# Entry
Amino acid sequence: MSLAGQSAVVFGGCGGMGIAIGQHLLKEGVKKLFILDVVELSDASTTHLKEQSPDAMVLSKTCDISIRAELKQILEKDVLAALGSIDILVNSAGIVESDVPDKLIGVNLTGIINSCLIALNIMSRAKGGKGGVIVNVASTAGLEPIAFLPVYCASKHGIIGFTRSIGVQPVFMETGVKFIIICPGGTRTRMFESVKKLSIEIEALQTMFREFKHPYAPQSPDVVGACVVQAIVQGENGSTWICNDGKISIHNYPPSQYL
# Structure
């Protein structure tokens, strides 16, 4: 699959991981890129993106993915008016910690589910669209637990469960939309570096957090950007890709035991 001339939308595109994803999409030939985030895209970040493809169109708009009405308005009106169609949608918006679990779930899980369903309605061949690819950025914390980040882990497990459930052949045959999961390990982003303490008031988890020693040095966001592009180009519908410790691999799940 070639990305040449395609139109892409990246949620959470102003963070280090989002910028890296945008850079790799542009480098691979994407000609229209729309960045959506709760903060404005800085001039410096715009410059970094344009350096990858000076002729590409790079647009941005603030959007809170956890507010469905705002999300729907921007995707169905602003994005479509600017791009004409959506070929690639990358959901990389996320937060690590919140005093209110509802907020974390609203951004990391509910927002991404709504983004997928709204975009699928736009992209589906059954609804007059061209098909395409939807990429959901989860985490290795969605594949195994991190005890001191239980709500974050719940949100990422939820992304994986949702994406694997909708990324099945009958849905692809009807819509022409392929679903991909990306699971980064520890990555050098401001989001993770900003977490200095936990809001959850369980001393055992607070102690585990303070004493945690990660076995790997945090990887560059560039690894995640490269993984997203590789998965879009090579990945099968419903596949899960891990980028951890600077390495990219495909994750294989055990056979289902209960269905």
Observations:
- The first strand starts at residue 7 and ends at 11.
- The mean pLDDT is 92.
- The longest helix spans residues 101-123.
